[in-house]
Amino acid sequence: MSDVTREPAGTGRELRLVGFLCNWCSYGGADTAGVGRFIQPTDLRIVRLPCSGRVNPLFIAKTLLYGADGVLVSGCHPRDCHYAEGNFYARRRLEVFRHLLPTLGIDPRRFEYTWVSASEGQRWQQVVSKFTEQIHSLGPAPRLPGAPELEWMQSGVNPA
Amino acid sequence: MATQEELKKIILDVLPDVDCVIGWGPGPEPLCASPYFMRNPEDVDYLLAGPASVHNPALFLPEYKGRKTGVVVKGCDSRSVVQLISENLIRREDVVIIGFPCAGVVDASKIAAKLGPYGEPGETERAIFDKDALNLSLGGKELSIPLSEILADKCSRCKHPGAVISDYFAGEAADALQVKDDFTDLAGLESLPLEERFRFWEKEMSRCIRCYACRNACPLCVCRDHCVASSREPHWLAQANGVRDNLMFQVIHATHLAGRCTGCGECQRACPVHIPVLLLKRSLGRAVEQLFGHHAGLDPESRPPLLTFQMEETNIKEREW
Amino acid sequence: MRIGVFICHCGSNIAATVDVKKVAEAAWGMNDVVYSTDSMYTCSEPGQQAIEEAIREHKLHGVVVASCSPRMHEPTFRRTVERAGLNRYMFEMANIREHVSWIGRDKALNTLKATELVRMAVEKLRLNRVLTPKKIPATRKVLVIGGGVAGIQASLDCADAGLEVVLVEREPSIGGKMSKLDKTFPTVDCSSCILGPRMVDVAQHERITLYAYSEIDSVSGYVGNFEVNIRKKASYVDWEKCTGCGACTEKCPSRKTFDRFNEGLGATTAINIPFPQAIPKKATITAGACRQFQGKKCGVCAKFCPTGAINHEQKDEIVTVKVGAIVAATGYDLTDWTVYGEYGAGRYPDVITSLQYERMLSASGPYGGHIKRPSNGEEPKSIVFIQCVGSRDPSIGRPYCSGFCCMYTAKQAIMTKDHIPDSRSYVFYMDIRSPGKGYDEFTRRAQEEYGAQYVRGRVSQVYPRGDKMVVRGADTLLGLPVEVEADLVVLAVGGEASRDAPKLAEKLRISYDGFGFFMEGHPKLKPVETNTAGVFLAGSCQGLKDIPSSVSQGSAAAAKVMALLSRDMLESDPQTALVDIKRCIGCSKCVKVCPFGAIREQDLRGQIKAEVLEAVCQGCGLCNATCPQGAIQLSHATDNQILAEVEALLCQM
Questions:
Q1: Number of structural domains, chain B?
Q2: Which residues of B touch A79 (CB under 8 A)?
Q3: How far is it, in rounded angstroms, from Cα B108 to Cα B124?
Q4: Of A98, B113, B232, C100, which residue is least crowded by CB atoms under 10 Å?
Q5: What's the pTM value of the predicted model, to 2 decimals?
Q6: What is the fold of A15-154?
Q7: Residue range A79-129, pLDDT digits in tens
Q8: Nearest chain C CA: its distance from B89 CA (Å)
Q9: Do B291 and A57 touch (CB under 8 A)?
Q10: Domains and CATH numbers, chain C
Q11: Interface pTM, i.e. ipTM
Q12: Would an 8 Å CB–CB cutoff place C624 in contact with chain B?
């Protein structure tokens, strides 16, 4: 294993990051990053979807309101959508939705969307590292009553 | 009022060709008119078109899809009609649209605030709107309140007081007003730090009783019985009342209206616990305006901006990373 | 529901950084899990057998495997559970290798992450439904894009196997880069002697329809049922009438037209047949060079054409074909070497590209097979070959090795000695890369038998001195500066993805890498497949390669097409959208956004409802995200399934 990469930002205490990735480009890009052993922070959990066009912005709302600290959506680059147009719709819907977050009192930096192709393993590493760093700099998101404090996440794993 | 008489004449002319004409009639109390369905010529006598005609009659049109229906509309109502047509939720040929120059409608909560020292608004005995004021008697006192002080906020930023689309128009149709909507309502909330805004919604939503009055009053919430708020497949929300799910429902409602909401404000007016739910829709409306220059409910031929795209988006900046 | 969970060690690939046993233990506590275990290689035969046995023994309804990426082994394990009697969609995978063990160093955090990914998979599986593929008819016809040697091979193999083939070539003739070569390494056999008959076979094959001078306009449809619009570019010659007699080219007065086929070495006429062996052998007018199109009075070609084939009014024509599969074989282009100022950036006539040199060597080329200095027509005695021009050079964005230059340079050095026995060849190289059958021996022959002098080092500058070219470089083995006075300098220019390759990729809905090369389905196991069902790759469009490899890929792609179209009916993917008729309000927003026209309105007792055409639906789920009431749901990725995965991460009790 190469040791070119520094340790991830969040080592010690993880935050809850959820990724929604299209199967064809970004999930493949994340695979490529794995094959290339591009070390990344461990916080992100990936939900595999067929297309970024499948991402209803309400999935992001649900994820953020129910206890996540950050949400990342990644699809094929515009014009490269496996389904021709899905990411074009996604781009509009996600951008509009992002504008709602400040009104709700949620830092819009907690939600990012981007495009990573299946060949861009290194870029995926950068995206994950930067996004994780960004969320760690914001700290845990404020929670609503009923949202879990997520202490359970740390149970048995407190390397700090 | 001359306009009202002219409206009645138009409705009488239209009535034989339609199932009914939807407008406003006397409400349970003098300060508030009710939605009113006119089927017979004698019904038309009771039409009320004025500052008390707060309801949006476009709400009922989707149920009448396929039947020829007349509808009397304020400017804001007419935009809902346009939006419904553009989304193929009603057919243009099915509706006879009757417009009139609206001078604004009242906000019941503002009246209640004014009447506070004198008694309950519901106890008003007699209320007459003249050109500039509401004259009423309450608790034996004769009161006159300037209309400008009790008009709904939406009226102050209204660009189209007359219908944007109509088959008949009572009185003089006027050009669009040069009013700028600078989203002062949102500015208030957004002057708070993020965390406090979040806590603001937490507090507001703790009052919510999930009665869905907001949804039921919304002319564009056409799913009605099939709303995701109460379905199991898909199962987006717990049925139990809780702040999280209450807020989530409002986000669902607002998101479903992104690029579609005309800002008629019926959701907020209908809320029995006075939660400013329109703010969320206004926020998304502002985003759609900034990003796509789109205003819902002005052009029946336009396509809602989230149901289309451009390969190169002018106003969407791609993230650097 | 009874769920079984299998956690894979993948040897040490996963187990080194994930506590696999701990993950398997944790799975016991997850909802509906009645069996959990770990195994060394779950995808191995014993690994798969263990799954089958567990399904039977524990009466499992569904299986979760936590191992590598589902893009790798999901099909494998679906077959496994199917063998044990489960529906193949009652299976979920957690990717704990590419997404966990290979990218995270902290074993405790990796173990936690792996456990959560397993929980997500379990929660999703709990909502999975049995899905059954439908049969859809397939068109037993294949489109091959690109008539180079890879495309020719794919076309002939498919046609010989009984499939109808449509071959589309952008240039006026098929043959590709190979048709420009004089000889081929390492056998030094004549390129046109081996390619020519194959080109003729294409022309004469009863099952191959050739559209030369044509491009792909648009592609719609899906595996088994693509509909392709082919743009036949205006050649201003009616090819039905043209006999290729060449009378027009003899008489054409515009004789200074850039000769594309000969790489600009010499000129051609505005109306021309690119080379004597062209297939089809038809004339094409280069509008930009034709006097008639410049508004001057001409029409000489029309006057002399014995069949009246000339038509200056001709327009592009669109032809629509239906095919079941597509092979992309669009090859490569030479890297633009004029970015190198140190090699003269194209200013010196005696500095030429390797492909121009091939045309020079070719007996049917503009020099009649004689090596001459373009500047004065004299025979060169001292020839310098510079390797890695536009290859292995990150400074111009071409960090990769083009793979074939070392070999063709050795060939050209040998050919040079054959043509001019008293000549001296110098080859400046970085490394000699010759891994192929008989390849290394070949480069040695160039040095040992033919006396080519190999100098290890990069050339820093090429400049004229008198009527000679001075090549300055360094011999890095001797550590000395080197200066050679050359009569001719040949640049071994590397390759890059064919121009417009990304545009074609977008039409085909396949991926391409940062250089524009098309992405294969898997770098090792699916070298000619793409991730788009029914679209295959052959030759250099996937990555630069030499002739034997291109031909192999052409045959490989043909084999894949044959396997696909060996049946009249294909199985459709049942992961399609499904409308809940009761909840659909007929607003048709889904109809508006569907990129495939797979949803239509139907009148159901007077009410408009959406209806999905299952065979057309590609399963993107855009409609699902669009429908406000969620009345249209994508099977196998429903709102509830996605929400279940999210909730598995957030609402753990």
A1: 2
A2: 311
A3: 13
A4: B232
A5: 0.80
A6: Rossmann fold (3.40.50)
A7: 888 888 899 999 999 999 999 999 999 999 999 999 999 999 999 999 999
A8: 6
A9: no
A10: 3-131 (3.40.50), 141-232+316-331+509-565 (3.50.50.60), 247-304 (no CATH), 333-496 (3.50.50.60), 577-635 (3.30.70.20)
A11: 0.94
A12: no
